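[job 4471] stage=fold_predict status=RUNNING
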Amino acid sequence: MAQIFEFPAKAIRDWRLMEESIRPILERGGADATAVDAIVGRMKSFFDLCNREFNTTYSYQLPSSATPAQRDSVKASIEGLNSQFSTWIHQFTSELFVDRLIVEIELYFAEYRSGNG
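[job 4471] inference complete, writing C-alpha cells
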C-alpha cells in the first residue's frame, strides 16, 4: 500500500521560510524567546496580507483592421507591463514587511519597558 504524504500549502511553506529567517535575526539582536514568539506571532497576519494573490483580467478590443503583428505587439506590451507591475508589487510588499517588522520590534519593547507586555 502506498503512503500518501500531504505537503503544506504554498502560503504555509512561505510563512515557515519567513519565520525561519526572522527568528534568528531577533535572537541575534538579543530578543528572548518570549519576545521572539510575540513578534513573530504579530507578523503572521501581516505576512498573510502581503502575500495575497491577485488575479487580473484584461479586456480590450482592437480594431478589426489590426494586423496579427499589431495584435501580438499589444499582447506583448500588456504582458510586459503585467510583469513589471508584479515585480513592483513584490518589491513594495517586501519593503512593507521589513518596515512592519521594525515597528513590531519597537512596539514590543516599548510595551515591555512600560510594563504592558
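[job 4471] summary: The CA atoms of residues 22 and 40 lie 7 Å apart.
[job 4471] exit 0
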